[in-house]
Amino acid sequence: MKMIKLLLLYFILVFVTVFLLQSIETDSIRNSSITEEELAKHVYYLASDDLEGRRAGTSEARKAAEYIANEFIAYGLFPHPEAVTISDKTDYFQPFEFSSGVEFGKNNLLVITMNGKKLSLKYDKEFRPLPFSTRSSVSGEMVFAGFGISSESENYDDYADISVEGKIVLVFQGSPDTGDPHGVLNQYATPRSKTIAAREAGAKAIIIITQPDEDDITLMRIRTDRTYAPSGLPVVNISPKAAEKLLRPSGYTVDQLYKKLFDTRSPNSFELNNIVTDIQTDLYAVTSIDQNVIGFLPGNHPEKKDEVVIIGAHYDHLGWGGQGSMMPDEHAIHYGADDNASGTAGLLELAQKFAANRDQIDRSMLFISFGAEELGLIGSQYYVGHPYIPNEQTTAMINLDMIGRLQNDELTIFGVGTSPVWESIIESSAHYNNFTVRTNPDGFGPSDHASFYAKDIPVLFFHTGLHGDYHRPSDTADKINYEGMKRIARYAYDISYSLVTYEKPVAFTRADSPRPRGTMGNIRVYVGTMPDYVGESGGLRITGVRSDSPAERAGIKTGDVIINFGGKTIENVYDYTYALGEFNPGDIVEVVVKRDEEEVTLELELAARQQ
Questions:
Q1: pTM: predicted TM-score of the whole model, two decimal places
Q2: Is pLDDT above 60 for 353?
Q3: C-alpha 269, offset from chain centre
Q4: Which of 10, 351, 385, 538 has the most C-beta neighbours closer than 10 Å?
Q5: Count of CB atoms within 10 A of residue 516's CB?
Q6: What are the Cα distances from residue 272, in Å, to 47, 135, 246, 261?
Q7: What is the three-class DSSP state of 411?
Q8: Which domains does the chain have, with CATH numbers?
Q9: What burial letters (b/e) apply to 55-76, b meaning 16+ CB within 10 Å?
Q10: DSSP line for 348-384
Q11: What percent of the chain has pLDDT above 90?
């Protein structure tokens, strides 16, 4: 009995010792003050090999979300405004679905009938659909249409002297300017541009021949778009050897015809007689699930507690690269330390500090780490469409995105034109003089605050600027300026504290939005719309309209769906971009939008982008 008591006492002492050591260790890691050590801890984990770049919809992004939720639990944040207890980490998730890619089915066919004889091409060796192809079956006669380029502005049109209405078009990859980085026709050389041109000309499908002078390449390398946005036509890529069989009756070899088009820079389109082609494209969108991570702190003021201040930062990045990377052909982890492990770390530190001082806040607070920002602000757009607290009761939104590369104390704050009180609040902070603060009035921009500004919510966006590691594998945790991050986070805390204790709700104003500078590809014009990059087909939904822009003057409104622009059918953002490239500043175009169930025709005068 004595031995049992001694053993029991021993185990109790061991348990207490371990508990105390864990408590000491936890206290040393978690500090209610904003510290460099904690910021570094968060960044080094989020930008680690283990999380593989946190691409939206992956298990690694889920790990990042769980890490953030566990931190919220440790700080004592609630999972949502109705919660009365601290819950399991998954209760802090706001899940949403999105199209993350394309998968090919088993029924992709390409059968050519020449003079009564059928020839079936081999899938994935001689042909395959491109990822933006429409899932469909078509049959028809064939027309060769050169490079498949139609540009009035550049005076080059492969469809000028031939009708392709109801037929299948065969074209070459590339353009007459392939290899010339300054060639004006390269902007029309993308497979999407060729497909849009064929669709506008009335074709029922398009077949693109891989560029024949590429050594040992039979089919084009597949690159999926950020979302599945089908083009409205079946789109198939075939090898040069397969194309040889189609062109042989015309008297040309593939190499001869390609060289003639390339050397002369002149269209040479013709019908391919006695050839009927049957195409079946079998592909479909892959739907993935991602999540916003949300923590809630209730306010204390009997009237103001129903209002909310939101602090946000996206936690996703580019995974192993590909679409969105500045080095799309390099398969490597894109760590995203600055973009946006830095902003996420700042968000966590602010959440911890406010949680420690929760008795001082009048208004409620939501801390939101958004998913799928890199794919087109998907997480933040989902939140404003499904808010935990009505958008009308949201006083302001503070966004932290890329705050880890402070140099020369230069900090940029966007959105100062979205409320008349911003400048005084920004300048009244005790930390204001620690920076050279550069302000920008615009409430739109390529980060999550834009989703809130489009809902008439005042926003501020903290940012330390782009750099040579942006969207590259070299954006690593060792390059972060943690001392600068600490100062920015403390500055953001001062401003946020002013908001949760401010006498009145922050008034909203439409910002004077500067026009984008320079050209964007072949686009010379400025419209002033914020497209919904998540939309897949059926038109382009507008999530925001810049003040005093051509779009606003024409009467385009947030929520409108553009279905025709200047006589060109608009199915998605790619069609819209293609259409813009065909116009010049000063052109007056007719725009058809779907507004609720009504089609509205508007007249819009295009302006020039700033030089």
A1: 0.84
A2: yes
A3: 38
A4: 351
A5: 13
A6: 55, 25, 8, 17
A7: strand
A8: 33-100+287-501 (3.40.630.10), 106-281 (3.50.30.30), 525-608 (2.30.42.10)
A9: bbbbebbbbbbbbbbebbbbbe
A10: HHHHHHHHHTGGG-SSEEEEEEES--TTTSHHHHHHH
A11: 70
